[in-house]
Design goal:
The protein has eleven helices and four strands, in the order αααβαβαββαααααα. The chain is α+β, with helices and mostly antiparallel strands and 281 residues long. Strands 2-1-3-4 form a four-stranded mixed beta sheet. It is globular and about 50 Å long.
């Protein structure tokens, strides 16, 4: 009787040797393994591309909404102080925030209820519990604006520069604290503050400013070709030292440094910062 190929295919099962079974299973295993490898390589390539994009276009990822809070409120006194560097960073990064100013009269009532008993405070997305410490706020603001480099070495340079600025401010602190000391007679206090400030103006301040002046010799910004949180902090220091409000620190102390003077002008000319500085009080 004639049997077609089709009927033969279904009517009589094929016989497969054990070796052929092992080979088939091995082929399937290899295929799955290669798929997993290709998936892993694709994921790594995607991560690498994201990292490259983040470094080349630091403001791109925050604009996509990654980990950026919808609402930010910054609370501080109606002065520049410790919060100004954070304000400058958020402004340069185009991140909206509520800039709440606390009067010194109100501070006496609210101090005991605040985190760590200090300002500034930052609230995210309307949460009841705020965040404290201006340095932490600065780095957070840098992360969501792209003004803190993601590359570890570049971030190291930024932190190094911030540390230098912190050291300069630390030299100023004893005379600041002395000026608020109510246990010393006014005349004696005035004499000591004057002596300390004149030494600062003659020695310590120029020593630190010379380092920043050198950093700006061949660069518009302190840590490279674009602004970072280090520039936001140093701008605050420049404006403070050159304000003329610190007794016995000459208001023209910064004009002796052309690179720093140009840096300050460049930063203050940024549209978002200029609009903030020129806003009616």
């Amino acid at each position: 009787r004639t049997v077609t190929n089709a009927s033969r295919r279904f009517s009589r099962p094929s016989r497969t040797s054990p070796a052929q079974c092992v080979s088939a299973e091995l082929a399937i295993s290899i295929e799955y393994s290669m798929s997993a490898v290709n998936f892993a390589l694709g994921a790594l390539a995607g991560a690498a591309a994201t990292a490259v994009a983040a470094d080349a276009y630091p403001s791109m990822l925050p604009s996509l909404g990654f980990s950026r809070p919808k609402d930010i409120e910054l609370q501080y006194f109606d002065i520049a102080g410790a919060a100004e560097k954070v304000r400058f960073t958020l402004l340069m990064g185009g991140v909206p925030f509520k800039d709440t100013r606390v009067s010194f009269a109100d501070w006496g009532k609210m101090k005991e209820t605040t985190k760590f008993g200090q300002l500034p405070l930052m609230y995210l997305n309307g949460e009841e519990k705020p965040y404290a410490q201006s340095g932490a706020m600065l780095r957070f603001a840098g992360a969501i604006t792209g003004l803190m480099p993601k590359d570890p070495v570049q971030a190291f340079k930024v932190d190094e520069t911030i540390g230098l600025d912190d050291d300069l401010r630390r030299e100023m602190r004893p005379s600041i604290m002395l000026s608020y000391d109510q246990t010393i007679k006014p005349k004696e206090k005035a004499r000591k503050v004057k002596e300390m400030r004149e030494k600062l103006a003659a020695n310590e301040i120029p020593r630190f400013l010379s380092h920043f002046e050198k950093m700006l010799e061949n660069s518009e910004y302190l840590c490279g070709s674009s602004a970072t949180i280090a520039d936001a902090q140093f701008l605050t220091t420049c404006r403070w030292l050159g304000s003329g409000v610190i007794d016995h620190i000459p208001a023209d102390i910064m004009t002796k440094y052309p690179n720093i003077t140009a840096f300050r002008a460049r930063m203050e000319a940024k549209p978002e910062i200029a609009a903030y500085l020129n806003k009616p009080k």
